[in-house]
Amino acid sequence: MPNLVKLQIPWTGNVVTGGGVSTLYLDESASGFVSAFATFFDTVKVSFPAGLTWTIPSSGDLVDVATGGLSGSWSEGSTTVVNATSAQDYAAGVGARIKWVTSGIVNGRRVRGSTFLCPLAVDRYGSDGSLDDAYRSAFYTAANTALGAITGDLMIWHRPTGGSGGSAHAVTSAEVPDQVSWLRSRRT
After folding, report:
1. How many domains does the chain have?
2. pLDDT on residue 185
């Protein structure tokens, strides 16, 4: 069974309670992903409060798709640090969500993934409380630009469950729903 690159991007700083992490999976043969996600965060940094830092690592673990066990390590490029730049106040714990779309189906359900973008500066919300269309569009463009830079290599991993092995599904597009999102738990 193939391996997946496990890319973990920590969110640190005084505006993140307890720290955070965005975990993304990529095909083991992927290249250019460190640069693609550094560009993504550099593009959206104006929507997040100063004091927030993303560190895109240049190495990490490989995961066996079928078992979830560690199977090796990867390295690419150099570690990149991106600092958020908004001077606006922010809404703690809420923000936007990128919905990663695949054509995969497991147990009668579509395989999807999400990356949460929290906390957002308060001026990124519309007067109705939803996401401002201009900023939502900017997140959409940045996500699809990153996806285009690594065409076919971003994967959603369906973990092994109930004795059945895991599976990996290529992301085909990104969506940004027009609603405020928050992470309810680590497994939602």
Report:
1. 1
2. 54
The Cα 25–Cα 8 span in angstroms is 9
CA distances from 31 to 9, 18, 137, 140, 177 (A): 16, 31, 26, 22, 28
Domain assignment of residue 180, yes or no: no
Buried b (16+ CB within 10 A) or exposed e, 116-153: bbbbbbeebbeeeeebbeebbebbbebbbebbebbeeb
Q: How far apart are CA 69 and CA 64, in angstroms?
A: 5
Global model pTM greater than 0.90: yes
Cα 137 off chain centre by? 16
Q: Is residue 182 part of a domain?
A: no
Residue 184 falls inside a structural domain:
no
Is residue 111 situated within a structural domain? yes
Predicted local confidence at residue 187, as pLDDT? 46
Q: Which residues, in sequence order, are bridge partners of residue 64?
A: 3
Residue 188 confidence (pLDDT) above 60? no
Q: Note the pLDDT of residue 91.
A: 86
Structural domain containing residue 36: 3-175
- Angle 33-44/133-149 helices, nearest 10 degrees? 170
